[in-house]
Amino acid sequence: MDPEQDRDGGGRSCCSCCLSFIFTAGLTSLFLWLSLRPDKPKCSIEYFYVPALDKSLNSRTNTTLNFMVRLANPNRDQGIYYDDVQVSLFNTNTTTNSSSLLANSTVRKFYQGHKKKAKKWGQALPFNNQTVLRAVLPNGSAVFRMDLKTQVRFKIMFWKTKRYGIEVGADVEVNGNGTKAHKKGIKMKKSDSSTSLRTYFPVCVLMNLLVFFAIR
Ligand SMILES: *[C@@H]1O[C@H](CO)[C@@H](O)[C@H](O)[C@H]1NC(C)=O
Ligand SMILES: *[C@@H]1O[C@H](CO)[C@@H](O)[C@H](O)[C@H]1NC(C)=O
Ligand SMILES: *[C@@H]1O[C@H](CO)[C@@H](O)[C@H](O)[C@H]1NC(C)=O
Ligand SMILES: *[C@@H]1O[C@H](CO)[C@@H](O)[C@H](O)[C@H]1NC(C)=O
Ligand SMILES: *[C@@H]1O[C@H](CO)[C@@H](O)[C@H](O)[C@H]1NC(C)=O
Ligand SMILES: *[C@@H]1O[C@H](CO)[C@@H](O)[C@H](O)[C@H]1NC(C)=O
Ligand SMILES: *[C@@H]1O[C@H](CO)[C@@H](O)[C@H](O)[C@H]1NC(C)=O
Asked: Most CB atoms within 10 A, among 62, 80, 125, 196?
């Protein structure tokens, strides 16, 4: 018989067995978390067109805001379920620093596989068509702000995570042709209210490890 067990009795043995199980489970989940933790989707504005600001049309009646956003899943092992994506367009008044809501639009919810990219075309009707025309600056260009707001769940093998908030935005400059002034896509950056992906899980694991060493 194991002398250690002889001295301490069955209760101690069971307890240490239980503890090493907790410890192993903790390490395993830490490892799984490190290898499977998902990254949030990358969003960019690839196309933006306002016919009313297109001088070549000689007509200012079509004040729709037309856009295409690219949503990319950077993860190799996780799919992404997007809820409906709320698109909001603002007029950034550079002289007063204020921005007023011009229009809302929605991109329908969808699923995106590993490493996939989605191009989402959309059109937004302004609440007041005059605000679009007033957005033009003295130098002939106009600056709009576009915000995306949604929630995503990650699909990790067979289960779905809880919902994580995504809120990103970027300014887009429109030239005298009514289109995006710069050829390159505009990266949309995180706004303050996005929830962080990486808070809850490691805290549990750390607690587990701490408890283990404390009892030992
Ligand atoms: C602006 O909208 C109003 C009401 O929706 C419409 O009657 C008017 O023709 C529009 N004007 C332009 C320039 O599109
Ligand atoms: C306004 O312009 C957009 C983009 O070119 C086009 O899809 C839409 O049909 C136009 N709307 C009207 C009422 O002409
Ligand atoms: C606009 O905002 C920027 C940065 O927040 C600030 O530096 C600047 O002074 C503001 N301008 C006005 C006119 O409020
Ligand atoms: C526009 O969208 C924003 C964000 O989804 C929402 O908070 C706001 O109530 C909407 N406004 C209108 C007039 O629909
Ligand atoms: C910005 O605000 C100023 C002061 O209220 C106003 O005169 C100007 O027309 C605004 N510019 C735009 C682009 O809305
Ligand atoms: C026009 O003015 C805005 C605001 O000052 C600036 O951001 C933009 O780069 C200018 N556009 C051009 C083509 O000069
Ligand atoms: C509008 O488009 C034409 C032809 O594509 C180009 O030559 C011109 O420079 C553009 N205008 C502006 C303000 O970018």
From this structure: 80
Q: Helices 200-215 and 3-36: crossing angle, nearest 10°?
A: 170
- Cα(144) to ligand 7 centroid in Å equals 19
Fold of 40-200: Immunoglobulin-like (2.60.40)
| Cβ of 131 below 6 Å from ligand 2 | no
For the segment 160-193, what is each residue's pLDDT rounded down to a tens digit?
Answer: 999 999 999 999 999 999 999 998 999 999 876 5
The amino acid occupying position 206 is L
What spacing in Å lies between the alpha carbon of 174 and ligand 6's midpoint? Answer: 9
Ligand 2 centroid to Cα of residue 145, in Å, is: 21
Neighbouring CB atoms inside 10 A of 155's CB total 19
Q: Which of 125, 51, 50, 57 is nearest to 88 (CA)?
A: 125
Q: Which ligand neighbours the alpha carbon of 176 most closely?
A: 7
- The ranges assigned to domains in the chain are 3-35, 40-200
**pLDDT tens, 10-50?**
566 777 888 888 888 888 878 777 777 789 999 999 999 99
In ligand 4, the atom with minimum distance to the C-alpha of 88 is 2
Q: Which ligand is nearest to the CA of 66?
A: 2
